[in-house]
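Hey, resending since the last one bounced:
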Amino acid sequence: MNSVFTKIIAIACTATILQTPAFAYQIPEQQEKFIEVVSNAISSAKGVDNDMKLGGIKAKRDKAVCKTLSKDKKVKNWVGTVKTVSANSDGYGVLALEIAPDIEVKTWNNAFSDSSHHTLINPDSEIFSVASDLKPGDMVSFSGRFIPNSKDCILESSMTLYGKVTEPEYIFKFSGLKVVQ
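The structure tokens again:
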């Protein structure tokens, strides 16, 4: 129960901070719903004693996530905090944003994993130019699309079921990025 309360407070604080005059930026309703669905699954997974229960939580979450997103999985002007700004060995940009506690939206970090999704950021792009000036902790507004996945609705990169549910890292193709001031 304590972790549920903690997550609710964290979401409320994030929403409050992002809506204060210093930031003057409101989280889109679609993002709020997405965060609520995923955070509820994270809270439900704490203390689960077997993988079957965890799998049930994940399946329920994945269905609810699909209902919050459009068919093309595109989002516009969502808000996040920079967690990682890097590049792969070919110089393509790697970006990870935290949109709420324990929920990340990110590119792949290597060309092999990215071979069919093309999420790595081209060094000749405007997004690369903006992203390369960012540092962890910066707040940004972003647009793009989640990578569709027939099994899970959208692609998530964690290696374990527990990670997929408690600290999801959703793979994302960025189409717009700007610093929120």
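The mean pLDDT is 90.

Sorry for the duplicate.
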